[in-house]
Amino acid sequence: MKTVVNFKTINKLAIPATIAGIAEPILSITDTAIVGNIPVDGVESLAAAGIVGSFLSMLIWVLGQTRSAISAIISQYLGAGKLEEVKTLPAQAIFLNIVLSIIILLSTIFIVDEIFQLMNASGKILNYCISYYSIRVWGFPLTLFVFAVMGIFRGLQNTYYPMLIAIVGAVLNIGLDFMLVYGIDGVIEAMYLEGAAWASLIAQGIMAIMAFVLLLTKTDISLKIRFPLHKELNRLIVMSLNLFVRAIALNIALILAVREATALGDKYIGAHTIAINLWLFSAFFIDGYGAAGNIMGGRLFGAGNYDGLWLLAKKIMKYGLVVSILLMLLGFAFYTPIGHIFSNETAVLQTFYSIFFIVILGLPINTIAFVFDGVFKGLGEMGYLRNVLLAATFLGFIPILFLTKYAHWGLYGIWIALTVWMVIRGGTLLWKFRRKFRPLLQNT
Predict the structure, then answer these.
(1) Long-range contact list for 206-211, CB < 8 A, 24+ apart?
(2) Which residues pair with 184 in a beta bridge?
(3) C-alpha dihedral over 330, 333, 334, 336, to 10 degrees?
(4) Residues 6+ apart with CB under 8 A from 389
(5) pLDDT per residue over 243-283, tens digit each?
(6) Helix residue ranges per DSSP H, 183-265
(7) Where do transmembrane segments lie in this chain (predicted)?
(8) Please, what is the Cα angle at 363 between 357 and 364, to 5 degrees?
(9) Are 301 and 375 in contact (CB under 8 A)?
(10) Which residues contact 374 (CB under 8 A, 6 or more apart)?
């Protein structure tokens, strides 16, 4: 069946993908907002939630890359009309990913003190990090399973079911946060930061059950491991390894940012925690169009439809920029009440407001990077994506971060470094896409 590239088909995938994509940042934002308003040690709890959230995001992003690899391969086979040939691959990929996640989970719980000390956590904040992480970490394999199932649905050009899973998880997490963090008089004792961790873990468990049931009932994909190993498993592993390296480089940047903000003091890591959660929320919001580029791009590439691929890139870029501009306007209009959602500490809020304009002004730049990230994943260009992130991190972000630190620019320097990082990522991907596919338009 021919893939039609227009407003309706793109947004039919992009809008549900946007809702599904913001599930994880909503979990983190909910924890951040509710934890930041805890009546006892709110600033320390907020800092701990930010530090642990950054580390868990690193683990999830590093190992969750199988989702993009599965999606790319399935969508390419779908575009080529050979879907039946790839139906045994997902079960093998999911099994491999879950086993690896459990090994990593078990290895981290024995060195949890050292992990957060490396991120400059100490004293009461370190204790809170350990207690929060020791609960939330068990949701790690569950989240990876959900990500893998979402990748299968994306490859099948379906973002509706991932959206349902995400909505249920987010709503459940918010409700449980209020119940467990603050408690209910005479029914549930307030658990504060640990309550937020339990809320996230329970929500992730429900999402995993939903993903399992929907995969079995709504697709022909089986989770039963069948041999021999699929011929595409090697390609999937290579693609995933490239994305693993890419995700490590990405998270080196994000964790260094957290580490440097933590070193500046409690109010700075509190402000940075609010800013990075809003940055991630907007990233996943815009990334809905990157998901459409991933899903449709893989199918168009599999079918050899380069004219359609070029048109797709132009349209999703335009739609993504419109969304980023709307988010900018909302941010400028409501930045004061947005800050109060997360914290009532004057020092934290003043610090947050001082750097929020950098976060907002960077959104259109982020759009270019996120959209073409999605397109290149659909094309299976994981090696190039790896090289772009390595260059952006080690030749852009880290030098700028330490130059601005030397100049005593504080939190401003951290966010300037993050902006330069995104400029390199987006500009390099845009250049490569034009260079590779514009000449092919003359031959189709």
Answers:
(1) 206/168, 206/169, 206/172, 207/23, 207/142, 207/143, 207/146, 207/165, 207/166, 207/168, 207/169, 208/142, 208/143, 208/145, 208/146, 210/164, 210/165, 210/168, 210/169, 211/145, 211/146, 211/149, 211/150, 211/165
(2) 188
(3) 140
(4) 245, 246, 247, 249, 250, 425
(5) 888 888 988 998 899 889 989 988 898 889 889 888 887 88
(6) 193-218, 233-264
(7) 46-64, 93-112, 132-153, 160-184, 196-216, 236-257, 269-289, 319-338, 350-372, 384-403, 409-431
(8) 125
(9) no
(10) 287, 289, 290, 291, 292, 293, 294, 297, 316
AA letter at 406: Y
Q: What residues contact 318, with CB distance under 8 A and at least 6 apart?
A: none
How does pLDDT run across 388-435, given as a tens digit for each residue?
A: 999 999 999 999 999 999 999 999 999 999 999 999 999 999 999 999
Per the confidence metrics, is the pTM higher than 0.90? no
| CA–CA dist 339, 349 (Å, integer) | 6
| Statement: residue 118 has pLDDT above 90 | no
- What does the pLDDT read at residue 25? 64
Tokens representing 71 are 């999606």
Closest by Cα among 73, 406, 61 to 243: 61
Conformation bin of residue 123: beta by default, left when phi > 0, alpha when psi is -120 to 50: left
Count the helix, strand and coil residues of the chain and give each as a percent rounded to the nearest 5. Answer: 85, 0, 15
Closest CA to 167 of 196, 136, 199, 206: 206
Whether pLDDT at 27 is above 70: no
